């Protein structure tokens, strides 16, 4: 009965998510459409983190590294394409591009390689050590971006024209929202299928009892390694879209503040719940928009709400609405 109620809640969230920008388009309110697009992108980043946090039990405080890698992939490739300058000429020619599909592929590949290197080290630890090492790696990448003057350094890098997607006018707010919403839907569907697969069951088993998983011949390290890489790739895809939304990328996308925000989306919505990141990102953006315009310290009520969720509603917003408390 609870599961049916949660499915109903998920359906309502999905319908509201699509309906709000459509209504805003009819009311000629492009800003609301932009906010909905931001929700979609942040939710996608949350889906990536939720894969390792909610289902793998890995508290990563460095996912901003992958979010920023996706953003810089979009910014660097677009910058070189618009300036008609190759990225490198020797030993082979690499040129920039303004095509989103190519940018996404680059973001996925680069983030996967970086995540593989980071996970190979961090997954040999656990608990607070894992948290601190993921944070340390993210901060190293953050300071590297600050000291990279070729691409703006601390001032960031502008994308003068939003990158293109075949058959879609990405400069049109509702079209770009539709693109982001579809990509979010694909990512959520992929996540749902993955979690229900043998791999997903093994990942959850490694979270609950790694010794038993080892005893039956399944290596928790390898399972977590693959999950961490997939999680990073999803987050990097969100970062590439976020850079296109703002037409700007800066080291703030790599900072620990961004890692914290992504984690807040997951916790507010519900750790280990498919629609948790979407609900959490929507709630965060609503609070930021409504309270941020009238009070400088709008994060205070957000912090109180987060504390209430952690102490009394471990299932997050989705869990509360579904009438269940989920103890992850």
Automatic annotation (TrEMBL):
> Topology relative to the membrane, per the entry?
Multi-pass membrane protein
Record-linked Pfam families: BPD_transp_2 (PF02653)
Q: Where in the cell is it found?
A: Cell membrane
Q: Which keywords are on file for this protein?
A: Cell membrane, Membrane, Transmembrane, Transmembrane helix
Where does this chain mainly localize? membrane
Tell me the InterPro entries matching this sequence: ABC_transp_permease (IPR001851), LivM-like (IPR043428)
Segments crossing the lipid bilayer: 7-25, 31-53, 60-81, 101-121, 128-151, 174-195, 221-242, 262-287, 299-322
| Protein known as | Branched-chain amino acid ABC transporter permease
Give the organism the record lists.
Thalassospira aquimaris
- What's the source species' lineage? Bacteria, Pseudomonadati, Pseudomonadota, Alphaproteobacteria, Rhodospirillales
């Amino acid at each position: 009965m609870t599961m049916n109620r949660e499915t109903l809640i998920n359906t309502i969230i999905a319908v509201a998510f699509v309906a709000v920008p459509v209504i805003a388009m009819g009311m000629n309110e492009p800003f609301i459409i932009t906010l909905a697009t931001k929700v979609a992108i942040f939710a996608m980043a949350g889906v990536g983190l939720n894969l390792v946090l909610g289902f793998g039990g890995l508290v990563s405080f460095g996912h901003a590294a992958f979010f920023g890698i996706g953003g810089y992939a979009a910014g660097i490739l677009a910058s070189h394409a618009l300036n008609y300058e190759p990225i490198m000429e020797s030993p082979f020619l690499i040129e920039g591009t303004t095509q989103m599909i190519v940018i996404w592929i680059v973001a996925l590949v680069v983030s996967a390689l970086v995540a593989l290197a980071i996970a190979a080290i961090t997954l040999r630890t656990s608990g607070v050590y894992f948290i601190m090492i993921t944070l340390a790696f993210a901060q190293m990448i953050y300071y590297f971006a600050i000291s990279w003057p070729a691409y703006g350094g601390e001032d960031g890098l502008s994308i003068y024209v939003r990158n293109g997607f075949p058959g879609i006018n990405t400069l049109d707010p509702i079209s770009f929202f539709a693109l982001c919403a579809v990509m979010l839907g694909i990512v959520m569907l992929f996540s749902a299928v993955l979690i229900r697969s043998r791999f997903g069951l093994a990942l959850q088993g490694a979270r609950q009892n790694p010794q038993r998983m080892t005893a039956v011949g399944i290596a928790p390290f390898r399972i977590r390694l693959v999950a961490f890489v997939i999680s990073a790739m999803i987050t990097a895809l969100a970062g590439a879209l976020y850079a296109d939304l703002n037409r700007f990328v800066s080291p703030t996308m790599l900072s620990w503040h961004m890692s914290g925000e992504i984690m807040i989306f997951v916790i507010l919505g519900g750790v280990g719940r498919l629609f948790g990141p979407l609900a959490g990102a929507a709630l965060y953006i609503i609070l930021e928009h409504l309270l941020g315009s009238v009070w400088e310290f709008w994060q205070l009520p957000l912090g109180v709400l987060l504390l209430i969720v952690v102490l009394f509603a471990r299932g997050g917003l989705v869990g509360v609405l579904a009438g269940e408390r989920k103890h992850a």
